[in-house]
Each structure stands twice: as structure tokens, then as C-alpha cells.
């Protein structure tokens, strides 16, 4: 939409129209003229009414364009700009990638499976770069422990204290992990999840509905399934494939340590490779002046007008 100062436009247009009407009434030579020669004298006929109306219409159009140019017309568009400040630079510097490990501690995970997983996770956290935030959750039919990515010593302590017992519900820990990691993603900080389980969930549809949120936020889930149950294997593959992670299948406990360590390392590498870029945007109004465009249009129309006068009268002034 074109905006302009209506008062300046009205005043300019009024002045120009008064000048046009005055000249139109006081100078009939604009529409009739005499050509004199030493031998002949020819009086040209008066322009037909139609031509005079065309001439007046073109003058009014030129007056409108000139009035708009003087009225400082402009258009307003929306544009996003990036905001830089000392505080934002510090935020970018301090933002660290995050890794959350979710461990199934249902009854079926008791014994050597749980102890092996705890040992691998603990050793991994202890050697992992301090530039990565780590969180931990263990669950059964509900969340037992939930240590958000903040204090690594508390995370390691929670891993060591994990105990087996209860059923298996995937949706609760996934919802909690999503709430932890979403703020990281809003700042464009990379995150990942490692999910370890040995059984089918009792909330199949509920947990599946959460995977689209992980996908949209670009939070990959690296899964480790323990056992040979086809249903559980398929769910772990679905979770990993949907979110952009990878699925690891430890069909025997003997391979659990190796594959779990591989999954943890891969999850950590995926977030270490991504450069953290935090950019804050703001929408502002951009004003684009149009006076020069209207002046150019008026000049073009004036040239057309002069050509029309010359064509009808043969006079170029």
C-alpha cells in the first residue's frame, strides 16, 4: 500500500489544477495558431473537442503524478534483522550442546544387563568433554530419577543408584527429555538422546506421537535394544529412523557394553560437530520512498503529451 502526506498532495494538486485551468482559459493559442509565410497565410483550424479533452486529461494526470511526488510517497515493508549485543555474544559463547541418556530400569532389566549399562554410562560420562551438558533419566512404568543437564556429578550419582523394578512406559521419559532439550534447540544449540531398553512399551501410541516433536526440533535419538524380541527391535528402529538417530541391537548381554558405548560416542560426536550459532531476530518496518518514481512517470507522460501536441499541430513548443 502506498502512503503519502494527504495535505501536501491536496495543496499541490490544487495549485497545479488552478494553473492548468487558468492557462486553458486564458491562452487559446494553445489550441489554435497561425502560420505565416511571405507568400501565403494559413490559419489552422481549432483542435476538435476530443483532442482538447485528451490534452486536458493528460495535464491532469501529470498534475496528479507531480502532486504525489511532492507529497513524499512511500511504501512500508516488514523485514527481519539480526540483533547483536554483548549479552547475546556471551549467550552464544556459554551455550553448550546437551546429551540426555534415558535408561530403562524395569524389572526385566535387572541383573547383569542393568549393571553393565550403568558401568558403561558412568565411565562415558566421566571421560566426556566438559563442554557438553549431560542429563540422565531412568524409568519403568514412571520416571524414577530425572537429573537435568546441569550438574554432572549429580548425574553420575543417579546412574550408580539406578535400580530395576516395574513395567515399561516410553512416553514419560521422552516427554521429560523434550522439555529439557527444547530450550537448547530454540537457541539453535545441538542436542541428542540415547535411549536404552529391553522391552516393548505399554504406551505404544502415546510415545510414537512424541517422535514428530523430536524430528521437528532436530533432536536425534540413538537407541540401544537389548534382546531378540522383534517387536522391541522394530520400535527402537522406528524411534531412531524417525528422529534422525541410529539403532543398535545387542542381541546378547555380551555385546551390550560395546554397542552401548558406540551409541554414546556417536550421539556425542553428532552434537560436537555442529557449530553453535545463536541469532536473535527482530521484525522492523522498512520505508521505501517513491518520489523519484512518480517524477519519472510525470516526465514520461509529459514527453508523450508534447509528442501528441506536435502530432496534432506541428508545433513543438
From TrEMBL:
<feature type="transmembrane region" description="Helical">
    <location>
        <begin position="54"/>
        <end position="75"/>
    </location>
</feature>
<protein>
    <submittedName>
        <fullName>VWA domain-containing protein</fullName>
    </submittedName>
</protein>
<keyword id="KW-0812">Transmembrane</keyword>
<feature type="transmembrane region" description="Helical">
    <location>
        <begin position="6"/>
        <end position="27"/>
    </location>
</feature>
<keyword id="KW-1133">Transmembrane helix</keyword>
<feature type="domain" description="VWFA">
    <location>
        <begin position="98"/>
        <end position="263"/>
    </location>
</feature>
<feature type="transmembrane region" description="Helical">
    <location>
        <begin position="286"/>
        <end position="305"/>
    </location>
</feature>
<dbReference type="Pfam" id="PF00092">
    <property type="entry name" value="VWA"/>
</dbReference>
<keyword id="KW-0472">Membrane</keyword>
<dbReference type="InterPro" id="IPR036465">
    <property type="entry name" value="vWFA_dom_sf"/>
</dbReference>
<dbReference type="InterPro" id="IPR002035">
    <property type="entry name" value="VWF_A"/>
</dbReference>
